[in-house]
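Table S2 (text version). Query chain:
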Amino acid sequence: MDFMDSETQRPDDLSQLEADYSIPPPLAPECKSFKWKIQIIDTDGNIEGKMLTSKDVWKLQGTKVIVHFDEDSGQPIGDSGGLLGSWLGQLSHDANLIPINYNDWRCVNSYIKDTAWNTIQSKFRFDDPVIRKEYVMGALGSRCKDVKRRLWKEHKKDTLNETLMNRPDKIPELQWGQFVRTRFDEKWKKMQERNTKSQKHNTMPHLCGRKSFPRRRNEIKIKTGKTPSRAEFFIESRTKPDGSFVCEEAKTHAEALTTLLIQNPQVTTNVTASLDDEYAQVFGPERPGRVRCVGRGPTPSKLGKRSNVARADVENSEMVVQLKGKVEELGTQVKAMSTFIQQILGTSTGEQATVWATAFANIPNPALLNISNVPNPQEDDDGLDRR
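Corresponding structure-token output:
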């Protein structure tokens, strides 16, 4: 069943069970005990450092976890980003809040999305909610997709009726029925076959594990003081601790990227990617909708705009450097001319000094004079000293 974005009222078939957001959803896997080093802020604006698990976030009352974002990619970083991702994974298992009987996240009823967004904001604090909402809700949609994939893998049977009978305890019967019938549809089967075929092209897996690309990239930035480019990040994320690569194909591409990086040393701009960078030269242009080796969020169109801005910044910085050099050069010339004038005023007769001072005072830009062509007033044309 598809919910349309134009529907803003609570769906009639949505469960009427009261939601309890002080504990994880019953369907969610058991929360891990890993603790994240984060900051929380209370209603008075007081900030405090804490060590929290994802389960602890559900218990927060009157305080929120501060989420830090990378300004270049607009994605969560640090422990706060990891905690947000972990908690969203638990929230996505709440079938009472987000039903599983939809085909496309973009078509989910806006009432459901608004309720989910308000729930997220009750636990997490964002510097700019309007801007951050797009990423966070997209990440939630991805987590919900993972939930449906896991349910299908664990409960699918050979026939439609057998699968309908194998309903998980925590999933409402109506949701499960619509969910199962959709996946036994021929259209969905063809799409699944196409996706499975496409997935086989992913022959160079990364070594980031569950850690997102932005978080790993930020760790490299903290360590090196520079944001790694896509080429540098690909090499880093495909290299094992012993220096070997995940596969021969990854090694071949890494060598090609390394060659380009050596041939084209870049000015440090802290720009993650551009449409014509070394990565694009080796792997080809980007397809619509996503940018490889960056993570969720940036698209080719957005990346193109950012690249133009970054390129303009570099050109402007180079121009500033050139202008500063010109100013310093002119300043040196003016200083030399001033010293020369002082020597004239200190050694010439009164009448000569007055003439020279008046002449130089009327010159709009003394630095443009060629000092080597100015005759020494202490000598006559025949070169003899007349003092």
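Notes on Table S2: The radius of gyration is 33 Å. Residues 1-6, 306-317, 367-387 have pLDDT under 50 and may be disordered.
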